[in-house]
UniProtKB/TrEMBL annotation:
Keywords: Isomerase, Purine biosynthesis
UniProt feature coiled coil, ranges: none
Classification of source organism: Bacteria, Pseudomonadati, Pseudomonadota, Alphaproteobacteria, Sphingomonadales
GO BP terms, alphabetized: 'de novo' IMP biosynthetic process
Catalytic reactions on record: 5-carboxyamino-1-(5-phospho-D-ribosyl)imidazole + H(+) = 5-amino-1-(5-phospho-D-ribosyl)imidazole-4-carboxylate
InterPro entries per the UniProt record, alphabetical: PurE_ClassI (IPR033747), PurE_dom (IPR000031), PurE_prokaryotes (IPR024694)
The protein's name in its UniProt record: N5-carboxyaminoimidazole ribonucleotide mutase
Amino acid sequence: MTLVGIIMGSTSDWETMRHAADVLAALDVPHETRVVSAHRTPQRLYDYASGAAARGLKVIVAGAGGAAHLPGMAASMTHLPVLGVPVESKALKGMDSLLSIVQMPGGIPVGTLAIGKAGAINAGLLAAAILATSDAALSQRLQAWRAAQTEGVAHDPAPADP
Ligand code: RP5
């Protein structure tokens, strides 16, 4: 059963949001990816967010850029945890996306990550961490992923230099 829904406002967000999908794939977390625009496809957004819990999704990762209303509007229509990824915009480097996503009114939370690739990676990891609280096997995979990351950090920044 699909557990995480990764939605984004445009196909142009995929280059960023693919990193969330990559992390979930690496951790063997069933997920789906969809283009759902708050502005261009509002009915699609309504259908997706309001039906997400009934379909068995447990977490939604939502990425958008510019006037990035997708995560907040999705959160307004589901009680599932929504993780927001501010996609880097051309005009304002993603500051517009970040502020659009992070400044939610009290009562409708969106867990907002960093702008761009790092945010997408961390949204995937956080989604996995949420699921891992009730899935011991996934918790083991997540801990192994973290240990491998630690193991992969070099001690010497330039080993080939004389
Ligand atoms: C937002 O507008 C999308 O999330 C995207 O980041 C941005 C630009 O979309 P496109 O014009 O590239 O489709 O809705």
